[in-house]
Amino acid sequence: MSSVYVHPIATDSDQLRQYVQFGIDLYKGNSCYVPPLIIDDINTLSPDKNPAFDFCEAQSFMAFRNGEPVGTITAIINRAVNEKTGKKQMRFGWLEFIDDTEVVDELFEAAMNWGRERGMTEIVGPMGFSDLDYEGMLIEGFDEMGTMATIYNHPYYPRHMERMGFEKEVDWVEYRMTVPDAIPEKYARIADLISRKYNLSVKKYTSKSKIKKEYGRAIFELVNEAYADLYGFVPLTDRQIEYYIDIYLGMLRLDDVTLVVDAEGKLVALGISMPSLSQALRKSGGKLFPFGWYPLLRAIKGHTDVVDLLLVAVKPEYQSKGVNALIFADLIPRYIANGYKYAESNVELEGNEGVQKQWEYFERRQHRRRRAFIKNL
Q1: Which residue, of 210, 280, 327, 375, has the fewest CB within 10 Å?
Q2: What is the pTM of this model?
């Protein structure tokens, strides 16, 4: 008889707080782990907060042994993705566990049984509710500090996935770039050429309320267009767009945000970056109060030498035409002025050569790789 008890987690804040806190405690003393902002994860996992529950169903589970938490997993069914792909696929995310075969097996059995009861035939992950949630288990780069937008996990995690018969579905890679001393000459030439050829211009803001009002919806509508064919992506709904406008645009440092518009002022491309919050989140332990807000506020104001490249999106008809050069021709001088020495890319599908090509004029190294695993139920 198993000594591990797996308990379905209710969506009240107290149980979810314990759920999220377990993952943070599991990495105590690990210099590469970046904790999430606890309140953000609680809201993401709460049906009354996250509009993705309009088309998703989910259940979080927590494993205990002798009354002590030893693991977590969230089972998710994204009906919109399944309708798009024609599959009966469930996802798993928010996976954390001690290095113990019994714990891992019991966690996954609980999640997979939940999916089987709902007619699912495959399980894939780690993935979240949408493409803007965490995705991919770290399989390379365990000695590299993560970012606020990515998962960190112990090296024993992928070993357990392979032991259970999971196989590779897709890989994502990440790059660390050195911020150059000046705009690369070829970038500058391409930016000037593209600007004149297509009558495009860069638009900057200093007011968060104004960028929300004038381009808030357009930003996420562009994401829907630009990311339409990416793995696991379905368009953000109106309610999701409103949700992300409130969450993300309010915390950005607008100097690190570049919009590219056409002659009519319509958005055709964007680059969203922000000062790295990794060190600040480590200092805060994922908590805003009583003192966690201070290191986060300092980081947002630019007291760091690393900038995270959160999002680059280009309208499909302008892709592969050099529009990215306009974005970085604007951002690089600002990065230099703000004292950034390094830039961290977000996750990129390993076969997405178009995205990776934009880094070719930077000194760079591919330093992390993460994987979505898949298995028949």
Answers
A1: 210
A2: 0.93
Place of tokens 């004038």: 214
Cβ contacts of 39 within 8 Å, gap of 6 or more: 288
- CB of 45 closer than 8 Å to CB of 60: yes
Q: pLDDT digits over 289-339, tens only?
A: 444 544 566 666 667 899 999 889 999 999 988 898 999 999 999 999 999
For residue 342, give both structure tokens.
């390094």
| Tokens describing residue 100 | 């113990």
How much of the chain, in percent, has pLDDT values that exceed 70? 96
Cα torsion for 292, 293, 297, 300, to the nearest 10°?
70
* Cα first-last separation, the chain: 23
Pairing between strand 89-97 and 122-125? Answer: parallel
| Residues present in the chain in total | 377
Q: How far apart are CA 134 and CA 41, in angstroms?
A: 10
Bridge partners of 349? 172
pLDDT tens digits for range 56-83: 999 999 999 999 999 999 999 999 999 9
Q: Name the nearest CA neighbour of 35 among 150, 127, 126.
A: 150
53-56 contacts at long range (C-beta below 8 A, 24 or more positions apart): 53/129, 54/237, 54/239, 55/79, 55/80, 55/237, 56/80, 56/129
Confidence (pLDDT) at 1: 64
DSSP-based three-state secondary structure for 212: helix
- Per-position DSSP letters for 245-269, written without gaps between them: HHHHGGG--GGGEEEEE-TT--EEE
List Cβ<8 Å contacts ≥24 apart for 150-159: 150/34, 150/174, 150/346, 150/347, 150/368, 150/370, 151/126, 151/370, 152/27, 152/30, 152/32, 152/33, 152/34, 153/95, 153/96, 154/26, 154/27, 154/99, 156/99, 157/95, 157/97, 158/371, 158/373
The upper half-sphere exposure of residue 129, i.e. CA atoms within 13 Å in the direction of its Cβ, equals 21
Contacts of 312 (CB under 8 A, 6+ apart): 269, 270, 271, 272, 324, 327, 355, 358
What DSSP assignment string belongs to 31-43? TT-----HHHHHH
Query: For 89-103, what is the mean pLDDT?
Result: 98
The position carrying tokens 């000594």 is 3
Amino acid of residue 50:
N
Higher pLDDT, 298 or 91: 91
**342 near 178, Cβ under 8 Å?**
yes
